[in-house]
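Lecture 7, part 2: worked example. A protein chain together with zinc ion.
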Amino acid sequence: MKILIYPHEILRQEARPVEKVDGEFQGLIDQMLEMMYKARGVGLAANQIGELRQLVVIDVTPSEEGPNPIVLINPRITEWEGEESGEEGCLSVPNYVAPVKRASSLHLTGYDRNEKEIGFDAEGLLARCIQHELDHLKGICFVDRLNPVRKALFRKKWPKIRPKEEG
Ligand code: ZN
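Predicted complex, written out as structure tokens:
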């Protein structure tokens, strides 16, 4: 398994709700956590490894304090508040960061890996990361949310900086 690189078509597709958290699915969660930590990312959505399932892993804890993984299954943002711009990057768009406008705080509901219903408020980096990863589940990449000028710059720059596809 590897992390798909933009503009892979699976990154453009919507993930399906998860119906069953079985042993195979637990294995997928562990694999995604491992890949996220190895790539030094703060979040990874299942679309990014070619699995169209509503599963996201996140860890925004500074590495000296972590790990503190968050696993979100069938996540939904139910409330948004405020707006702020901040730098984002993506494991599917390596070597590129740009500012994106996001809600500054939110309320999230979903399930954890034990199929327990969860709900919590988030702000700051966690809120940004949740919005970024949930976008992936809808087939949206952060570069789709750049302002028109940055988007045009990105389109010019990306063919030069994108990693070469393997195999
Ligand atoms: Zn991403």
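Strands lie at 43-45, 55-58, 70-81, 84-90, 93-102, 105-111, 117-123. The chain has a mean pLDDT of 96. Keep this in mind for problem set question 3.
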